[in-house]
Amino acid sequence: MNHGVETVAILLLVAAAVAMLAQRLRMPYATGLVVTGIALANIPHAPQVSMTRDLIFTVLLPPLIFEAALFLPWQLLRREMPVVVLLATLGVLVAAAVTAFGMHWLAGWPPLSAALFGALISATDPVSVIALFRQSGIKGRLRILVEGESLFNDATAAVLFGLLLAVAQGTHPTVSGALRDISVTTVASIACGALAALPLSWLAARSSDHLVRITLSLVAAYAPFLAAEHFELSGVLATMTAGLIAARYGAGSPGARKTHESVEAFWEVVAFLANSLIFLLIGMHEGGLQRAAGGDRISAMGTAAIAIAAVLAGRAATIYPLSSLFFATRWRIAGAHQHVLFWGGLRGALALALALGLPPDLPLREPIVAACFAVVIFSLVLQGLTMAPLLSALGITTRGATREAGSGPPLHR
């Protein structure tokens, strides 16, 4: 136990140092952590933490989803809901299908393995995307679209992945049965989140003690997630619902504004700590995969390149055609914003958690996990490093964004 605590403490110290260095070098904080993690994996006697599905999915993901929902401007989101919902539902299905097609025909994967990879990698990550755009200083409609889509499409991807995994494990649902299961899972997951969050938020709104409100919000982040997973529902969707409810109660509560600000500050710290560990672990795990590849490195790199190309093609097939549907409406998306939505579709924690949770006997499990990590590394490093130049080239970098782009984690809003 002491060894584990010491390891986590060392990693957090490294994260703090990377945050300071990233500020000086004006580079994305997440990218710096991933690169540092890769370097740590190749240093003898460096601290090691096993990256498991339970660690990512059960421990680190719930607070990150809750924090993202907590700070999402509900009034602004409602105005953009048609776009967000379309991208987060049909967009996920299109991206998953295109990615699966690419992995089947180009990499030669069996259809079911390719479909599972397409589902788990199809959702943009709410952690990576939100952190990147906050640091880049993006505000207004574009930021709402990015944050809203990246939050809502996690639930779609998780439900789709669960359905395909059930097929892989031997069930054979009909189309009508699958639609029924998805509908029931969605409604039940939202209800689970609401049932947990409503009484907790009601209690929190009636307390002026910031410690009590922080504690209740922490329970609201984990309780619906764990309850939903226990009943084989979507923990992601349940926690997202809880975060949205908590945000509405917190914004309109009669408690002192200073107390509510304490809750917000707490969740910013939690998000920073969870982000730091996830990004470092991603880099460390990828470094370990590179060492283990050995003579198969060329083959692994070829599969990784196909996976990256397939994911980018899936993202393009999502953003540009679906955006054209709003061309003659008040929800029209500017061409420059479409480019940002395309290139800013980073992948992260959810994809890794789903990949690491694949059954050991699943065909091509290890190649799927390796390809998932390759896509995540590519998005965090290459796309992350080129996002600021892209924003400048498109002329949509906001005032002060240059300063914030290298300022490390989003420590304020």
What count of structural domains? 1
CATH architecture identity: Up-down Bundle
Residue runs with pLDDT of under 50 for 5 or more positions: 398-413
- How many distinct beta strands? 0
What can be said about the biggest beta sheet? none
* CATH top-level class: Mainly Alpha
Q: Structural class of the secondary elements?
A: mainly alpha
The whole-number mean of residue pLDDT values reads 84
**Share in helix:** over 70%
* Cα Rg: 20 Å
Provide the CATH topology: Na+/H+ antiporter like fold
Task: Calculate the terminal CA-CA distance, rounded to whole Å.
Answer: 36 Å
Structural summary, described in words:
- This protein is mainly α and 413 residues long.
- It has one domain: Na+/H+ antiporter like fold, CATH 1.20.1530.20.
- The chain contains 18 helices and no strands.
- Helix 5 runs parallel beside helix 9 and helix 8 runs antiparallel to helix 9.
- The longest helix has 37 residues.
- The C terminus is likely disordered.
Keywords:
78% helix; 18 helices; Na+/H+ antiporter like fold; 413 residues
In short:
The protein is 78% helix and 0% strand.
Write the layout of secondary structure elements.
Layout: H1 2-25, H2 29-41, H3 53-70, H4 74-79, H5 81-88, H6 90-106, H7 111-121, H8 126-135, H9 141-168, H10 175-205, H11 210-230, H12 235-252, H13 257-293, H14 297-324, H15 335-343, H16 349-356, H17 365-394, H18 401-405
Helix pairs in contact: 1-2, 1-13, 2-13, 2-17, 3-11, 3-12, 3-13, 3-16, 5-9, 6-7, 6-14, 7-9, 7-17, 8-9, 9-10, 9-12, 10-11, 10-12, 11-12, 11-13, 13-17, 14-15, 14-17, 16-17
